Amino acid sequence: MGYAEELITLEGEEPLASFGVITDVQYADIPDGVSFLGVPRYYRHSINVLQRAVKKWNKEKVDFVINFGDMVDGYCPKDQSLAAVKDIVNEFSLFNGPVYHLIGNHCLYNLPRDTLLPMLNIPPSDLHAYYDFSPVPEYRFVVLDGYDISGIGWPEDHPNAVKAVDFLLERNPNSDKNSPNGLLGRDRRFLMFNGAVGKEQLEWLDGVLQDATSLNQKVVICSHLPLDPNASSNEALLWNYNEVMDLIHRYDCVKVCLSGHDHKGGYSVDSHGVHHRILEAALECPPGTNAFGHIDLYPNGLLLSGTDRMETQEIVYSRC
Q1: In 74-145, which ranges are E strands?
Q2: CA-to-CA distance for 250 and 253, rounded, in angstroms?
Q3: C-alpha neighbours within 13 Å on the C-beta side of residue 76
Q4: Phi, psi at residue 111, to the nearest 5°?
């Protein structure tokens, strides 16, 4: 992809902090398979990618790690789901520092929220999975819950599940709500394996961005689901990405949106100068290859140092 070729170098500056990144491990103790697009998937090998990542992060002494979701695959036999999630959580626990988890659709195929979230040490808030943290005074990280409004992970009669089902019935005429057949352009995002940010979460996000602005902090948005159609395939977008970005664009503090879900990766800079970087999936690494990295945070940008399938990239902020 050559992301770094057009960007200004950050060499010579001292990073404020460093953190590890990985997404879409989607481990399962099953034979290799392919995606609906025919891309090979290496279910058993993906845990080896994570193990190598943790070893390297410890060697590099990064300050923390962010897992961008989908740690176990939906094809994992359901009688193995709990054990598989525990296996992945145990691998992350070998990192010498804090690990921040996002939830993805495959996580929720395996375990309900009330079981999953405590295992991931996600702060309890009525089973919502959005939160924020500040690793250094200059930065605020905001973790979104893209399956806040979703047909998966909630009990069928939960208001958020009911809203999601009604939402899809209005927008996707297919009996299989994971099928985009007949949907055009960005409407192809209206699929059951995606989701939306709800009203309460939007209000919370508004408050967090107000607070970050008052503290003169730069903000990194973390979302399993991508937020910009120029970085992502239409089928991978958050249902209400436009509503979320309309809110984000009201604030100059947001510099970067990081995400997973769209396994091939992607990059864009939107009309307001916000950078969008989709990270490449660990699941699709052939044996012996990797897709993880670490990011150095600087006052005016960040540097992603990737391995194999995860490309290295410099991002220099245009809104400073």
Answers
A1: 99-101, 131-133, 139-143
A2: 9
A3: 28
A4: -140, 145
Residues 116 and 85: beta-carbon distance below 8 Å: yes
**What's the predicted TM-score (pTM) here?**
0.96
Task: Give the H/E segment covering residue 66.
Answer: strand 64-67
Average pLDDT over residues 41-51: 98
pLDDT of residue 1: 43
Q: Is pLDDT at 198 greater than 60 in this prediction?
A: yes
Task: Say whether pLDDT at 3 is over 60.
Answer: no
DSSP state of 136: S
Task: Name which of 207, 256, 226, 217 is nearest 134 in CA terms.
Answer: 217
H or E element that contains 53: helix 46-60
Per-residue DSSP letter, 72 = B
Largest Cα–Cα distance of the chain, in whole Å? 56
The per-residue pLDDT for range 139-160, each reduced to its tens digit, is: 999 999 999 999 999 999 999 9
Whole-number Å distance between alpha carbons of 153 and 146: 12
Complete DSSP assignment for 148-207: SB-SSSS-TTSHHHHHHHHHHHHH--SSSTT--TT--GGGGG--TT--B--HHHHHHHHH
More confident residue, 282 or 9: 282
Looking at residue 36, its pLDDT comes to 81
- Which residue carries 């970067």 as its tokens? 256
Q: 35: which residues sit within 8 A by CB, 6+ positions away? A: 41, 263
